[in-house]
Amino acid sequence: MSVKLYVGNLSFATTELDLQDLFAQVGSVLDVKIIQDKFTGKSRGFGFVTMESQEEANGAISRFNGFSLDNRPLTVNEARPPEARQDRFFGNEPSRGGGGGHKDSRGRGGRDFRRNR
After folding, report:
1. Which one, 15, 22, 35, 53, has the greatest CB density within 10 A?
2. Is there a domain that residue 23 lies in?
3. What angle in degrees, to the nearest 10, is found between the helix axes of 54-64 and 16-23?
4. pLDDT band at 83, cuts 50/70/90?
């Protein structure tokens, strides 16, 4: 069964081919993906490597966690499944109140000076 690894603290110069070559030293690499900013296309400094087996993944973690690649110590661990995201504006949190109370017919707050006294 394949195992996906998180690889963090990547140099912006590190390529997917660099990771492929590095992790191939400990086993069969099925997939490599460096995450890029969707607007600039530049690396976000982390990625994922999928190894063929749990044994190979464990070997990669023990060998490459803390390993210096492009003058940066890598963070390598087993990837966690993505957490369920809540929509930023329409999440499941309770409402924190509505709009302001409007006092006059023009939709503005404050005193209504047109009112009879």
Report:
1. 22
2. yes
3. 110
4. confident
Q: How many domains does the chain have?
A: 1
Answer whether 43's CB lies under 8 Å from 10's CB.
yes
Token couple for 39: 């607007």
Residues 6+ apart with CB under 8 A from 25: 63
Please choose, from the candidates 20, 29, 23, 32, the residue with its C-alpha nearest in 3D space to the C-alpha of residue 67: 23
Does residue 87 fall inside a structural domain? no
Give the range of the structural domain holding residue 20, as residue numbers without chain letter: 3-78
pTM: 0.71
CATH number of the domain where residue 58 is located:
3.30.70.330
How far apart, in Å, are the Cα atoms of 62 and each of 13, 82, 96? 24, 23, 47
What mean pLDDT comes out for the span 28-50?
98
CB 75 within 8 A of CB 22: no
Type and span of the H or E element at 61? helix 54-64
